[in-house]
Write a structure and sequence with these properties.
It is a single chain. The chain is of the alpha/beta class. The protein contains eight helices and twelve strands. α4 links the parallel β4 and β5. α2 packs parallel to α3.
Length: about 230
Amino acid sequence: MKVLIAEDDLNIRLGLCDLLEAEGYDCIEAAEGEQAWTLYNERIAGQPGPALVLLDIMMPRVDGYSLCRRIRQQDQQIPVIFITAKSEEIDQVLGLELGADDYIKKPFGSREVIARIHAVTRRCLASRAAEPQPESFQMADLQIFPAQLRAERDGEMIDLSLRDMKILQLLHRNRGRVLSRDELFDQCWGRRYLPNSRTLDQHISKLRKAVERDVQAPEIIVTVHGVGYRFDG
């Protein structure tokens, strides 16, 4: 899922990119409003555009309010989240009237950003009627709901990241077949990502803690030493 991040502060922009790419999103960066508008239009002209837009309000050339207005004239459905240091109620009301879906106020923590992005992503995935996919699928005793970025076991809901879901879906579609590390990277991180076995193994370890009943005897993500991972079904 592509995310357009329009933010003139380099450190904040890079921090958001690192944070979201770690969660499985493909980030497009813009340092000011006119560049963001150009990137937005280039993407929708040549290939599927961003599925989510993060907009700083106070940007050079074109501010976030004006850019949101342009985007809404072209697309009423794409989720838009404002990133702002402003806290006045009038600014929040103006943003919502322009069609913003949410606010992230500076300074913000990584957990808050991820929680808000996940909430918007769930709504976005759930509304994609043109991209049919099963409402849920089963892996061992775990029921997985892709559009919700969640899984359920024994009545307990488990929150998952977009990358977590990509990994589980790939394993489920290829049940019984060993997926190599390169294949997992290509499908779940993207071909631009430089493969690093430690990155993959650390992510799998974290995912196992979330989805396996017993991480010492995994049933969903089985390690095939020297090759990759497999779901036996």
